[in-house]
Automatic annotation (TrEMBL):
This is Bifunctional diguanylate cyclase/phosphodiesterase. PROSITE patterns: EAL, GGDEF, PAC. The keyword Transmembrane applies. The lineage of its organism: Bacteria, Pseudomonadati, Pseudomonadota, Gammaproteobacteria, Oceanospirillales. Residues 213-274 form the PAC domain. PANTHER family: BIOFILM ARCHITECTURE MAINTENANCE PROTEIN MBAA (PTHR44757:SF2), DIGUANYLATE CYCLASE DGCP (PTHR44757). Residues 447-701 form the EAL domain. The chain crosses the membrane at residues 117-138.
Length: 713
């Protein structure tokens, strides 16, 4: 009990020990016998009375033992296990205190002790590394920005130095602070010589000297100024750009001046302007420039309440010149005509070349007779014989006239009205001038309406065929028919053939109409032949436009085969004047058509201006005398003579003759005496729908009977 108290009590041996946590402690008595152990294991409890430390280990402990807390820590092997030991003598108790830790647990004990410090140290190091990284990144960015800025500044400096433009920096008094190498030449100038000198002392900036004050106020007011200057007496042009530069912590403003030589650009712009506004062939203002000039003239006339005349010119039959002599020759003709017109209008008007062989003239006037004199003078000027490349040409022109503000209030309206009047001059025979009026406008609008209605009329049946009989002059017997086209639609009512055929010719729709006439005419001919039991003939009109393509051969062959008719009963009629104008182009196709077995007829013979020599070239078998000669045969000796001469000439050439427009018996009698072969006109029959033509074949009531008359040779 005393021993236990001494060990565990308040003044116990255990309380006197100064031992760290988790350390094994032994109390050894005399001879190295163990009296107490912590922790107390089962083996120690059982052998505590006789367990003792070996003498060698006890001796080494006694050697290093000390009193109090001053004992050394040393390494020792206890019971074969390496340990770290601290021994202390407790003389008042006659004990030796041995505190030891196995060497294998020393590191972990140390780690546990320094764990908090280590964590704090690691955290400190991590934060330090992060701060260092952030500082390094910031410094890197600053360094990169500095290097980039220096690089950009270097590039900018090189760019300014290598620039082909003159770059100058001046102070607020326009004295030079910096100038690149292009300033005053390609060689870098002596900066000491330039600095402080007014920039206007050097070219090309000297051109700004007179208005530098106004330029400076403009720069300050708007933040910049740009302008162009041409040096007097030369074609050199410069473009200047001036911008202000504000200096920090200074009230003064510097200026950057950039000067560029734009002479080549100006030349290019002038060339482009010339190409865009003037005709390359004649050098005259083109359509675009004409519109601008006329617009300005209209504005001036409006301001002064004046009058303006516009003349639209077109050379007559110029296409024939191109087709005959070639386009290069035609271009030379246009140049000559343009020179004539320019001399004719120099004193009072403006001439423009619209396109091809079309010209435009506009001028101020006060009385209409002034326009008439100008138009008549132009016609006479153009009509003067033209000698070109050894060829004598006779050229004429047609003119359409419109007036401001009488006819139209704007440029487009004036040109449109003049074009309408020009078309009327062409229609009336060319080589004349025509003033625009409301009637022409009305006619043109109707023409447009017809043009719009034709395609639908062909599909709907409003465009249809009628047939007028062709009768033997001697007996009045029906020999065949002529197929004629008619137009009658809800929008326009009945439209005359002259009207809609002219429109179809101009628009090209005549080709579709011609094919329709071929197919329907041949089909109806087959039915009429079947009804009468006779080889009746059918004459179908053919436009020159249809003859412009080899497709017409296939179309005619298709119509013949589809109807199943004998080709010899089909006649194609071609107007004389149109044939003569296109003889070279259509002749090969006429030969191919003739080879199909059909016959060709020249319509309206005697009204054209072709040479009679063409008759020997055309593969035609019939001439058709125009009704203008038939109408007055009974009262006009001249018309009767022409009709007789044509009949005699045709017979001499082994051709048949058809006289159209026979309306009374007197005309029929005369034609019988002249030996005409076939007659056509209201005396025999008016143009009839197919059903009525069938009825005509079944009766002879409408065929007049005349006494036989002797033929006049």
């Amino acid at each position: 009990m005393v021993a236990a108290y001494s060990i565990l009590g308040e003044a116990s041996i255990w309380q006197s020990l100064n031992t760290p946590d988790d350390i094994r402690v032994w109390l050894l008595g005399d001879g190295g016998r163990i009296r107490f152990a912590h922790p107390m294991t089962g083996s120690l409890v059982r052998g505590i009375s006789d367990w003792k430390l070996d003498a060698l280990s006890l001796a080494e402990l006694m050697e290093h033992a000390a009193y109090g807390n001053s004992a050394d820590v040393f390494r020792l092997s206890l019971n074969g296990e390496p340990v770290v030991v601290q021994a202390q003598l407790l003389p008042q108790f006659q004990f030796l205190s041995v505190a030891f830790v196995p060497l294998s647990r020393q590191f972990w004990l140390w780690t546990g002790k320094v764990q908090t410090v280590g964590l704090l140290l690691g955290l400190f190091l991590l934060i330090s590394l992060l701060v260092y990284r952030l500082v390094w990144l910031a410094n890197s960015r600053l360094e990169n920005a500095r290097l980039l800025a220096e690089g950009n500044l270097s590039k900018l400096s090189q760019a300014i130095e290598q620039s082909q433009d003159s770059v100058v920096v001046t102070d607020s008094s326009w004295c030079i602070e910096y100038a690149n190498r292009r300033f005053e030449g390609d060689v870098k100038q002596d900066e000491a010589r330039l600095k402080g000198v007014p920039v206007t002392n050097f070219a090309p900036h000297d051109m700004l000297r007179d208005d530098l004050v106004q330029i400076q106020s403009k720069v300050i007011e708007t933040g910049g100024w740009c302008g162009e200057r041409r040096r007097d007496g030369t074609d050199q042009w410069y473009e200047f750009s001036i911008s202000p530069v504000e200096t920090p912590d200074s009230a003064d403003t510097s200026f950057i001046l950039i000067a560029q030589d734009i002479t080549e650009r100006k030349h290019a712009e002038a060339k482009l302007y010339q190409q865009a506004n003037f005709d390359s062939l004649t050098g005259l203002p083109n359509r675009r420039r004409a519109s601008e000039v006329i617009s300005q003239s209209v504005e001036d006339a409006w301001s002064s309440k004046g009058l303006l005349a516009l003349l639209y010119l077109d050379l007559d039959n110029f296409k024939q010149i191109n087709d005959t002599f070639g386009h290069l020759f035609g271009d030379q003709v246009l140049i000559k005509v343009a020179d004539r017109l320019q001399h004719a209008v120099d004193d009072y008007g403006h001439l423009s070349h619209m396109s091809g062989d079309e010209f435009l003239i506009h001028f101020r006037f006060t009385e209409v007779d002034e326009i008439e004199r100008v138009a008549a003078n132009i016609i006479e000027t153009v009509r003067e014989p033209l000698l070109l490349q050894g060829k004598h040409l006779n050229i004429s022109t047609s003119i359409g006239v419109s007036r401001y503000p009488v006819d139209a209030p704007d440029v487009q309206g004036l040109i449109r009205d003049a074009d309408i009047a020009l078309y009327e001059s062409k229609r009336r025979g060319r080589n004349r001038y025509t003033f625009f009026d409301a009637e022409l406008d009305k006619r043109m609008k109707r023409k447009l309406e017809i043009e719009n209605q034709l395609p639908a009329a062909l599909k709907s049946g409003d465009l249809y065929m009628v047939y007028q009989s062709k009768n033997r002059i001697g007996t009045g017997e029906v020999m065949g028919f002529e197929a004629l086209m008619r137009l009658n639609c809800r929008a326009l009512g009945a439209v005359g053939p002259d009207e809609f055929i002219e429109v179809a010719e101009e628009t090209g729709f005549i080709e579709a109409m011609g094919r329709f006439a071929l197919m329907r005419g041949c089909a109806d001919l087959a039915r009429l032949q079947a009804l009468s039991g006779k080889p009746l003939t059918m004459a179908i009109n053919m436009s020159v436009r249809q003859l412009g393509s080899d497709e017409i051969i296939g179309h005619v062959r298709e119509a013949i085969q589809h109807a199943g008719i004998d080709p010899t009963t089909l006649e194609l009629e071609i107007t004389e004047s149109l044939l003569a104008e296109n003889v070279e182009a259509v002749m090969p196709r006429l030969e191919k058509l003739r080879a199909l077995g059909l016959s060709l007829t020249i319509d309206d013979f005697g009204t054209g201006y072709s040479s009679l020599a063409y008759l020997t070239r055309f593969p035609v078998s019939t001439l058709k005398i125009d009704k203008c000669f038939v109408n007055d045969m009974a009262t006009s000796h001249s018309d009767a003579t022409v009709a007789r001469t044509v009949i005699q000439m045709a017979h001499a050439l082994e051709m048949k003759v058809v006289a159209e427009g026979i309306e009374d018996e007197a005309q029929w009698r005369i034609l019988r005496r002249f030996g005409c072969d076939i007659g056509q006109g209201y005396l025999f029959s008016k143009p009839l729908p197919f059903d009525e033509a069938c009825t005509l074949l079944q009766t002879s009531a409408n065929i007049p009977l005349l006494e036989p008359a002797s033929r006049v040779e």
